[in-house]
Automatic annotation (TrEMBL), chain A:
GO terms for cellular component: cell envelope. Its cofactor is [4Fe-4S] cluster. InterPro entries: Asp_de-COase-like_dom_sf (IPR009010), Formate-DH-alph_fdnG (IPR006443), MoPterin_dinucl-bd_dom (IPR006657), Mopterin_OxRdtase (IPR006656). One of its GO terms (biological process) is anaerobic respiration. It is found in: Cell envelope. This is Formate dehydrogenase, alpha subunit, anaerobic. NCBIfam families: formate-DH-alph (TIGR01553). Belongs to the prokaryotic molybdopterin-containing oxidoreductase family.
From TrEMBL, chain B:
GO terms for cellular component: cell envelope. Pfam families: Molybdop_Fe4S4. It is found in: Cell envelope. Belongs to the prokaryotic molybdopterin-containing oxidoreductase family. Residues 1-16 form the signal peptide. Its main location: other. Residues 43-105 form the 4Fe-4S Mo/W bis-MGD-type domain. One of its GO terms (biological process) is anaerobic respiration. This is Twin-arginine translocation pathway, signal sequence. InterPro entries: Mopterin_OxRdtase_4Fe-4S_dom, MopterinOxRdtase_cofactor_BS, TAT_signal, TAT_signal_bac_arc. GO terms for molecular function: 4 iron, 4 sulfur cluster binding; electron transfer activity; molybdenum ion binding; oxidoreductase activity. Its cofactor is [4Fe-4S] cluster.
Length: 840, 209
């Protein structure tokens, strides 16, 4: 979330798309209802199915799964055509005025630079025109035909209301009502929020769906302001934190690209050059020279100009004394992935299925239920030599080798069936303690990091995950002993000192390393601006730097703060826990004040978060330097950036251009600088917006498994219910919840039920080219057939939270879903595929 | 306070069926006053945060402690009234957190550890159709062996790259790691550090899917 849960109370209008917030994030709904009660906010829900969220909304409209860009592209056009955009905001805070290279173009669903052979884009034309100093050329009047605003206008000209509704199946009058209601937040005294969840991300155009949100919110001037923002309702309690810690192949902690096996990654200096925006052509051959350049500042860099400090501090935290200026701070210890390979979830299981992976760690995860194409993923597990599962329960993945695991409702020769005797995988199950049987922090969806204290002892011999990893690494280190082999150095020299004086793991020791300490005295680094790239600071993840502070002779871990005061009345609660970065509750908050830095947006003084105070002391130790950003939230801005600097009106400090990107320049995305509508991989219709059916930059893993409309005429999607969580391991094993929602079900419209002779409560079988599942039919008015470009098309929805273990059991819906993912994030397309349904 | 299965279903089931679920109608203040009744001695409230959706609702774990402060038994888990996110509320999942550890046995109503919780490390040999209980030391030792065998036999230390030069790549593509979004930050951090130092590049969490 750019904002946070409590901030929802400040909104004038909420657009909920691809989320059933009332069911899956009930608390968020409470704050929206408060906004409605106290400020008359409107709630809009857009979803293929009428849900509990729709029931609480002021306005509901359906759309066919996988057509969000058409829906939002039409909104962009509506905003521009009716001049509803927040002009001052757009001109000053976005790249609307930037001129784009003449070579940039778009034809027949393809952007310029398409490389047909390699099925990818050469992005060099997706760039700004620059002056002699490399600074982008602009036209603040927004009239130049090559400026982003005009190009965007041209791009979305095709997204007229009729075409959009033919694609999405949305009733025209409802669509218009949504446009009118949400786009009213373009008024300077209004803000609107967008809430989304997996209904937006789990598509072959997932990242571009969110880009479309970004364009809408930037045009309406809704970013960086209370009640605004783009707000992901994330599904797992600490999925934010796991991402921050980079449990993802493509990054290292703190959102820095992970190194690859290429010349520009070969040593620390090459790597710094590559990952620091604006550094590519600068003259430096060592860190000392680079430091001087950073001090002087260089164009097109933004806050990431400091990347070297984050990387070196991380290396120092990981490899301690072995990380020295003389050896690139042990940069060579880091694994370099193969630039030609993808290592994401789907790719991992494809490789496993080919027998390329020997050992797998499953850390509280359950791909046999939750993975896409789970029949295939389950089969992939049989090809492992060994697997370690760490969990509270022996879930479906831990027991993938049992007889029960291979039960299928239908004999299907295309679906594997195995017996335990045939499965050679050695399985180690390690019982983990539950959340309140241990202590530690979690970052919730609004980036608030909160401490969880230990309220009970772990059951039996179960242990906290920290204990498990700590003891395991101690064992591994023992096995490698004092090995002198070069390849063993990363293990032998890895710092691993988390025991207290009694030999027990000490969470505060981990926390201090994670948040950063000064190497000389071991005291916490008080914020990432103080990190250095000379080896004097160590910090595991720079975005958490500042969460540990030294006060009154001891370390204070700020996530433990529990002061609930809210001086601003905006729900900021600055001393409740801690939010990254630097306890900022609303990011990009520079946008909550006019370009002059002082004046609130007309009529919106109450929601101004920060301002430039020319008389404030920037540094209490230096009374001669006046002028600083101050406010009720921690300014998301370099404090001393005054009106004399060009960056004064550049609120998006993590971007090289400092502006919100209507046009995503260069390699920001793999599939285009503007979102464009493409059909899902399995679609019941053809793309009428352009000549490409599928997003061209997507990797097709299993071309032979693409279901077609003649065999599978119905759109399938998946979702959750309030009683169950994710794969159900943490809820179907709880008797109270299992009883509340005991059965695997599929929801279908009355019209489809009639066609198929299915009645409420019937057992039915749903099939795709990948498998079959059994479910109880729930015939409802909540689904309605769509009119898609003149065709009558049905959509059904399945719970994906069932499996063969626990108190409540049922078939995993993911036995149906495809192995195909988004072009950028590789998020699987769980939400739109083709299937058929019949009585069992 | 004993919340029976029936009582739980009555409260949360009713809310699920009505609009109240979105108001978090399982109003914990009612049960909080009931809790006061059992606060005769040594009842310790401990703040935690819900492990389900990422809203981050605060919850209070009430446990009975002995005179030395040692944990005796779980009493209940309730919404944390101080937490600004949920102000004491919880949805049906948060409200069922007691069950994560303990349940009331069907029939007898006795409070027991949730029998689905695994209490001992377990091992499944290749081709076997059953688990065997093992101790921690045996398990961790074997796992460390497997990691070492696989890593050492598959490790790529140096690699020739496109321009003909050689670079150190220190990776293994034969070990993969999945999950971790249910871990605490400190745990996720040490997992990330451990895996990368082993050379693991197939490193993924639920954020991807
Ligand atoms: S109590 Fe419910 S709404 Fe709150 S964090 Fe837990 S699952 Fe989410």
């Amino acid at each position: 979330m750019t904002n946070h849960i409590v901030d929802l109370k400040n909104t004038d209008c909420a657009l909920i798309m691809g989320s059933n917030a009332a069911e899956n994030h009930p608390i968020s709904m409470r704050w929206l209802l408060k906004a409605r009660d106290t400020r008359g906010a409107k709630i809009i829900h857009v979803d293929p199915r009428y849900t509990r969220t729709s029931a609480r909304a002021d306005l509901y409209t359906p759309l066919r799964s996988g057509t969000d860009i058409a829906f939002l592209g039409g909104m962009i056009k509506y905003i521009i055509d009716n001049e509803l955009y927040h002009r001052d905001y757009v001109v000053n805070y976005t790249n609307a005025s930037y001129l784009i290279k003449d070579e940039f173009d778009f034809h027949d669903g393809l952007f310029s630079g398409w490389d047909k052979e390699n099925k990818k884009y050469d992005v060099s034309s997706w760039d700004y025109q620059a002056d002699a100093n490399g600074l982008p050329l602009t036209d603040p009047s927004l009239q130049n035909p090559r400026c982003v605003f005009q190009l965007m206008k041209k791009h979305y000209e095709r997204y007229d209301i009729d075409t959009v509704c033919k694609i999405t199946g949305t009733p025209k009058n409802k669509y218009l009502e949504v446009l009118k209601t949400f786009c009213a937040t373009g008024a300077p005294d209004k803000t609107g929020t967008i809430l989304y969840a997996m209904g937006i991300t789990q598509h072959t155009v997932g990242a571009q769906n969110i880009r479309a949100f970004a364009i809408v919110q930037l045009l309406l001037g809704n970013m960086g302001r209370p009640g605004g923002g783009i707000n992901a309702l994330r599904g797992e309690n600490n999925v934010q934190g796991a991402t921050d810690m980079a449990l993802l192949f493509h990054i290292i902690p703190g959102y820095v690209d992970s190194p690859m096996n290429t010349a520009d990654n070969k040593d620390l200096i090459s790597f710094i050059r590559k990952v620091t925006p604006g550094a590519a052509k600068l003259p430096f051959t060592n860190l000392a020279e680079f430091r001087e350049l950073v001090k002087a500042g260089f164009p097109n860099s933004g806050w990431k100009i400091h990347t070297s400090k984050w990387v070196v501090s991380m290396l120092k935290a990981w490899y301690g004394k072995a990380a020295t200026p003389g050896n690139d701070f042990a940069y060579h210890y880091l694994p370099k992935r193969d630039e030609k390979k993808n290592y994401s979830h789907i790719a991992m299981f494809e490789a496993m299925h080919r027998g390329e992976i020997e050992g797998l760690f499953v850390n509280g995860s359950n791909p046999v239920v939750g993975g896409p194409n789970s029949n295939k993923e389950q089969e992939a597990l049989t090809k492992l030599k060994w697997m370690v599962s760490i969990d509270l329960w022996a879930n479906e993945t831990a027991e993938f080798w049992t007889h029960q695991a291979w039960d299928r409702p239908v004999k299907n020769p295309d679906v594997p069936r195995m017996t335990p005797a045939e499965i050679g995988t050695e399985v180690f199950f390690l019982p983990a303690a539950a959340v309140y049987e241990k202590e530690g922090t979690a970052a919730q969806t609004g980036r608030w990091v909160q401490y969880r204290w230990k309220g009970a002892e772990p059951v039996g011999d179960s242990k906290s995950d920290l204990w498990i990893y700590n003891e395991l690494v101690k064992k591994i280190k023992q096995k490698y002993g004092a090995s002198k082999r070069k390849e063993d150095e990363p293990i032998v020299n890895m710092t691993w000192d988390y025991d207290d004086e009694h030999g027990h793991d000490d969470i505060m020791k981990v926390a201090l390393e994670l948040c950063g300490y000064n190497v000389a005295d071991g005291k916490p680094v008080e914020g990432f601006a103080k990190l250095a790239d000379d080896g004097s600071t160590a910090c595991g993840c720079w975005v958490y730097c500042g969460a540990m502070t030294f006060k009154d002779g001891k370390n204070i871990y700020k996530p433990q703060l529990r002061k609930k005061d809210d001086p601003s009345g905006l729900g900021i609660h600055p001393e409740w826990g801690w939010a990254w970065p630097m306890n900022r509750r609303i990011v990009y908050n520079r946008c909550s004040v006019q370009p002059d830095g002082v004046t609130p947006w007309p009529g919106d003084a109450k929601r101004q978060l920060v301002k430039w105070d020319p008389l404030a002391l920037a540094d209490p130790k230096n009374p001669t330097s006046l002028g600083s950003w101050v406010g009720v939230d921690v300014p998301d801005f370099i404090k001393t950036t005054g009106p004399d600097k060009a960056a004064f009106t550049s609120p998006f400090i993590m971007r090289p251009e400092g502006k919100g990107c209507l046009f995503a320049a260069k390699n920001s995305l793999k599939d285009g600088p503007f979102p464009e509508h493409y059909e899902p991989w399995e679609s019941p219709t053809v793309n009428i917006m352009n000549k490409q059916n599928l997003n061209p930059a997507v990797k097709v893993w299993e071309p032979d498994k693409q279901g077609t409309r003649d065999k599978y005429p119905i759109i399938g999607t998946t979702y959750r219910v309030v009683e169950h969580w994710q794969t159900g391991a943490l809820t179907r094993n709880l008797p109270w919840l299992a009883e509340l929602m005991p059965d695997m079900m599929v929801e279908l419209s009355e019209e489809l039920a009639k066609e198929k002779g299915i009645k409420n409560g019937h057992n039915v079988v749903i099939s795709t080219s990948r498998g079959d599942v059994k479910a109880v039919a729930c015939v409802t008015k909540r689904f309605k057939p769509f009119n898609i470009n003149g065709q009558y098309i049905h959509q059904i929805g399945l719970l994906w939270q069932f499996g063969f273990k626990g108190y409540a059991t049922g078939d995993p819906a993911n036995r149906l879903t495809p192995h195909i993912g988004d072009a950028n994030a590789m998020c699987p397309e769980y939400k739109a595929w083709l299937c058929d349904i019949r009585r069992a | 306070m004993r919340v029976t299965r029936r009582q739980f279903l009555k409260v949360t089931g009713a809310t699920a069926a009505s609009l109240a679920v979105v108001d978090l109608g399982f109003d914990m203040t009612a049960t909080a006053s009931a809790i006061k009744g059992v606060r005769t001695r040594n009842v310790t409230p401990t703040p935690t945060v819900c492990p389900y959706c990422a809203s981050g609702c605060g919850l209070m774990v009430y446990s009975e402690r002995d005179a030395a402060g040692r944990f005796v038994k779980l009493l209940s888990v309730q919404g944390d009234p101080d937490n600004p996110i949920n102000q004491g509320g919880a949805c049906s999942k948060g409200a069922a957190m007691f069950n994560l550890r303990e349940i009331y046995e069907e029939g007898t109503g006795k409070q027991v550890i949730n029998p689905k919780r695994v209490q001992k490390p377990m091992y499944r040999a290749p081709g076997s159709d059953k688990w065997e209980e093992k101790d921690w030391d045996w398990m961790l030792d074997k796992i460390a062996d497997r990691i070492k065998e696989t890593r050492d036999s598959s490790f790529i230390h140096k690699e020739k790259i496109a321009d003909g030069s050689e670079i150190i790549v220190n990776r293994t593509e034969k070990i993969a790691s999945l999950g971790g979004s249910g871990l605490d930050n400190e745990e996720a951090y040490v997992l990330s550090k451990m895996m990368r130092s082993l050379g693991v590049v197939y490193l993924e969490t639920q954020a991807r899917i």
